[in-house]
Design a protein that fits this description.
The chain has two domains: 70 residues, no CATH class; 113 residues, Jelly Rolls (Sandwich). The chain starts with 20 loop residues before the first helix and ends with a strand. By secondary structure, the chain is α+β, with helices and mostly antiparallel strands. The strands form four sheets. Strands 1, 3, 7, 8, 9 and 11 form a six-stranded antiparallel beta sheet that branches. Strands 2-10-6 form a three-stranded antiparallel beta sheet, with no helix packed on it. A three-stranded antiparallel beta sheet has the order 12-13-14, with no helix packed on it. Helices cover 27% and strands 28% of the residues.
Length: 251
């Protein structure tokens, strides 16, 4: 049998089901995963940038370098006349550990009047030499200093930020997806909690606007003919109407 609405417009109002719960939950989970992964991918390189390890010279340090610019910072004293560095580009050699030609990494001197500095464990390091790494990999950095010294090798901040800026958009996207999922979840829960309430009764039933028992209504109003109709108690099944009232028969 096919469920139909009673004639004359006296029908059970269709319940608006709203968005499915699984879609809202899926968006919430996707937003959390994308946002968390983006934040981690953004923060970790910045933390690694701040974690520097001094290296004693003369000597060789093996490091994994990413593509970009690097600075060699020398431990120095800061006096009234400025910061003094002794390491030059001629004393710095950068070579890949896999045996490929490393001559494409050419160090160059930094302008001495205003070098960048790093404060590490209350010590001041001034940038003396820079070099550019064309492709990431493991490198041996050798510094043939004229006297024993301590250096720090650190990637340029601008290169690190340039690499992770895309993850900012990922974090914002994850936040938007999460908010969308939260909105859909609220709508779905509200629709589900209101389902089955405020359902208008058929003509002839108590409570029907204009029917018996309704304040100001006539003493009698014709009901719909007997038949199978959508169950006002559940939108997923049909119930038999005998012309006067609902019966216990459902399908």
């Amino acid at each position: 049998m096919t469920a139909t609405n009673p004639p004359g417009g006296d029908s059970v109002r269709a319940t608006r089901r709203g968005p499915p719960l699984w879609l809202a939950i899926l968006l919430l989970v996707a937003g959390v995963v994308l946002g968390f992964a983006s934040v981690v991918a953004f923060v970790v390189p910045l933390v690694q940038l701040a974690r520097v390890s001094p290296v004693d010279t003369p000597g060789t340090a093996r490091m994994h370098l990413h593509r970009g610019h690097y600075g060699v910072y020398e431990l120095t004293d800061s006096g009234a006349s400025g910061r003094f560095t002794t390491i030059t580009a001629a004393s710095v050699h950068v070579v890949r550990t896999d045996g490929t030609d490393g001559t494409d990494v050419v160090p160059y001197d930094v302008l001495r009047s205003s070098p960048a500095t790093i404060n590490h464990d209350s010590d001041l390091y001034a940038e003396a030499v820079r070099f550019r790494v064309p492709r990431g990999g493991d490198y041996d950095i050798t510094v043939n200093a004229a006297r024993p010294d301590t250096i720090i090798v650190r990637r340029a901040v601008v290169d690190t930020v340039r690499d992770v800026r895309g993850w900012i958009l990922g974090a914002l996207g994850g936040l938007l997806i999460f908010l969308l999922g939260a909105i859909l979840l609220i709508v779905a829960l509200v629709r589900r909690s209101g389902r089955g309430r405020n359902q208008p009764a058929y003509a002839g039933e108590p409570g029907y606007a204009g029917g018996p028992g309704y304040p100001g209504g006539p003493g009698y109003a014709a009901g719909p003919p007997p038949g199978w109709y959508g169950d006002p108690a559940s939108p997923y099944r049909r119930r038999y109407w005998d012309g006067r009232q609902w019966t216990e028969h459902v399908s």
